[in-house]
């Protein structure tokens, strides 16, 4: 809802920080070239800016669902234009059908997964400067790197209990950051 205020630069900046990489990665996964993926991102952002005033969470559903469908429509439109102008060597193929079959159902799930990844990345960038390097390393190696706490403790010169405490403290801050963003 904060995006409806075109002058709310903080809301738009946060929106771009979270969703621009999500849309780009989804487009690239569909074997689009960098330039085509960036065009899809720009088109989605333009459509969001143009339609945000009409977005109704009660009638349309969740914002992520709406954004996911907007991304899908833009991608399909882009593939239609590509298939109309570019004919592959070696014969006719239905590029649009191949793409739509591949993204029809799983795009929303994939969109949500990419959204969660991007939120985690933003949260990590926010939380990392708030904790010591040792605390961050203990968290990262155990939670992300999936290394055993005992090995991390030896590597960092900590007790195994200190590694678990560090991991829990960082996870708590990450969760708080993500919950705050999702509540907004």
From TrEMBL:
GO biological processes: DNA-templated transcription initiation
Gene3D superfamilies: 1.10.1740.10
Ranges for domain RNA polymerase sigma-70 region: 18-83
Assigned keywords, A-Z: DNA-binding, Sigma factor, Transcription, Transcription regulation
GO molecular function: DNA binding; sigma factor activity
Superkingdom of origin: Bacteria
Xref: InterPro entries: RNA_pol_sigma-70-like, RNA_pol_sigma-70_dom, RNA_pol_sigma70_r2, RNA_pol_sigma_r2
DNA-binding is among the record's keywords: yes
Keyword Nucleotide-binding among UniProt keywords: no
Any Pfam family the entry gives: Sigma70_r2
Name listed for the protein in its UniProt record: ECF RNA polymerase sigma factor SigE
Protein species of origin: Stieleria neptunia
Gene (name only): sigE_1
